[in-house]
Amino acid sequence: MAELVFFSGTMDCGKSTLALQMDHNHRARGRAGLIFTRLDRAGTAVLSSRLGLATDAVEVDEGLDLWDVVVTALTGGRRVDFVICDEAQFYAPAQIEQLARVVDELDIDVFAFGITADFRTQLFPGSQRLIELADRVQVLQVEALCWCGRRATHNARIVDGAMVVEGEQVVVGDTEGGAPGLVEYEVLCRRHYMRRMNSKAAHAAALSADVLPLELDACALPQL
Ligand SMILES: [Zn+2]
């Protein structure tokens, strides 16, 4: 019985590496797959990992019907035993429903990989729909770490070195131009996310205190 599985994690937890590994493992067993991604760090229509591996993929543009893509591949004589979806947090809820239909009506496994929540700690629409519809949600066990060494569970957006908690939901990081400032992302533990203490702020605080502010007393919750 085919399944819709959502592999979730923070940034930097190796989701894309696992997606590539899963593709490799299935192909090594003679199975053929389709790979989808959206807004990959390496550009359009490619699935890449931070470890340097990459493969071609179908770019999930807004409005693309994933059910149609799979059916067209099948009717064109292509074998599709499984579907891998990277950056699934960026897919529209309707596209997630198309994936569920692929599982149910075509009996094809769909493995989706994505970040659950954005830099404001709110669920991405695609991830929310996956949590609602998936047969299984699997939290990835390769743990990203906060600068303090705790398990990182939250994605922080950093603009020009300072953490922000408001703004557009999707701004692709590590790019200059467009929106004002350099946008980067950093994974943090909840404690340091809530205190808006990214690594740069922690080091700045350390300069005045001689030690890293590992103790929570050393970094107060922001006044709301
Ligand atoms: Zn921390």
Structural summary, described in words:
This protein has 224 residues and is an alpha/beta fold. It has 2 domains: 4-139, Rossmann fold (3-Layer(aba) Sandwich), CATH 3.40.50; 154-217, no CATH class. Helices cover 28% and strands 22% of the residues. A hairpin with a 2-residue loop joins strand 9 and strand 10 (162-164). It is elongated. Zinc ion binds next to helix 5. One of its GO terms (molecular function) is kinase activity. It is found in: Cytoplasm.
CATH architecture of the largest domain: 3-Layer(aba) Sandwich
Fraction of residues in β-strands = 15-25%
Bound molecules: zinc ion
Order of helices and strands: EHEEEEHEHEHEEEEHH
CATH superfamily of the largest domain: P-loop containing nucleotide triphosphate hydrolases
InterPro entries: P-loop_NTPase, Thymidine_kinase
Catalytic activity: thymidine + ATP = dTMP + ADP + H(+)
Organism: Nostocoides veronense
EC number: 2.7.1.21
